């Protein structure tokens, strides 16, 4: 009988048995972390936080408080307009009473902001809260006799259309356009300063006929000035014709008054244009036109930001170091073009918002829907991002210096860009009867396409051409740095 081998501690050559798998356990259950907010109240939007200093001027007009101040102004001025016409047996207010009334919006501040917030919590209607505020102040001023003329025959959209027109007009004219003008002025300054700075153009990203840096910057100034003129000439329209734009309530109160003319005079006295034919709302077409033009300007500014960024990457512009500033958290040598990148991103945000405003505001279902109400509350956000971009462009343009030596070095290794000039001169010589060269374009294409051609190569080639002596001499004297046409004059 064969006996089993005794157990041995020496391992055999056979593979060992697989390790036993641990017993399966159910899913690991972790107690969810609970997070109790501990920060004091914080702004959600970066425009009201990190970037507030750059856009604060817009808040005077395009904030909720700015809108409410304008609403008070519209209500007060309507009340004055009605009494000035002695309607419903009233008498014109004294100059002193008018000034006391106008102080309601001229001195509009935190007390009024808090009062309106408390009242709107009850009314659940922002414009009705405004009406109650004016009535309350009339009582304080001892003018209860005319209290019923507050918000007389108005729908909320009469007040809102005039208020939005006032706030947007003032924001554009007093804040946004001056910021755009600052960028344009800097571009004009740089265009003249660098009018003669020859640079290699890059069409399709490839070396192309030289220009000057001044001329290229002047192109942006020229484009922006044109759109700026369109924005400055914008209409700001309001309606003041009642619930569905028919003056029905007005005529019920007094059928002998020319209410459309009263409304026109009132709106034009506010410095606005009058829209006579509307539904319950002013149709917002002027807003669509304005926002599309501002978005157009933003597109040009975006193009400027990306071009300057590219010129910086090519070394054409050097960025002026700021003492104490950090370009990269790990690479000490870097100065990042953050102003132009910040402008680029904010212009994209602004453009998206302005486009959304245009698409939404152009439509209202039948006589009225409320999609425009929440949409228009974002007008300030759109202009805020645009203004922030302008601020970054201004700061960025003030922190770059042109590296003319880099521009010249770039030109000096791209003599093939003179191929255009040579083949064009040959064509002129053929027409003049001083050359019999056939297909000058193909001749230069064979010489230059796909490889570098130096100064000596081109000079030897030109000397061998069958062209007139004057033309030949012009070509021999030409360099990439002098082949700039009238770019300098255009820049200036």
Automatic annotation (TrEMBL):
Signal peptide: none annotated. It is an enzyme of class 4 (lyase). Keywords: Lyase, Purine biosynthesis. Residues 364-484 form the Adenylosuccinate lyase PurB C-terminal domain. One of its GO terms (biological process) is IMP biosynthetic process. Pathway: Purine metabolism; IMP biosynthesis via de novo pathway; 5-amino-1-(5-phospho-D-ribosyl)imidazole-4-carboxamide from 5-amino-1-(5-phospho-D-ribosyl)imidazole-4-carboxylate: step 2/2; Purine metabolism; AMP biosynthesis via de novo pathway; AMP from IMP: step 2/2. PROSITE patterns: FUMARATE_LYASES (PS00163). Residues 94-343 form the Fumarate lyase N-terminal domain. Catalyzes two reactions in de novo purine nucleotide biosynthesis. Catalyzes the breakdown of 5-aminoimidazole- (N-succinylocarboxamide) ribotide (SAICAR or 2-[5-amino-1-(5-phospho-beta-D-ribosyl)imidazole-4-carboxamido]succinate) to 5-aminoimidazole-4-carboxamide ribotide (AICAR or 5-amino-1-(5-phospho-beta-D-ribosyl)imidazole-4-carboxamide) and fumarate, and of adenylosuccinate (ADS or N(6)-(1,2-dicarboxyethyl)-AMP) to adenosine monophosphate (AMP) and fumarate. It comes from the Bacteria. Its EC number is 4.3.2.2. GO terms for molecular function: N6-(1,2-dicarboxyethyl)AMP AMP-lyase (fumarate-forming) activity. Residues 1-23 are annotated as: Disordered. This is Adenylosuccinate lyase. The keyword Ribosomal protein does not apply.
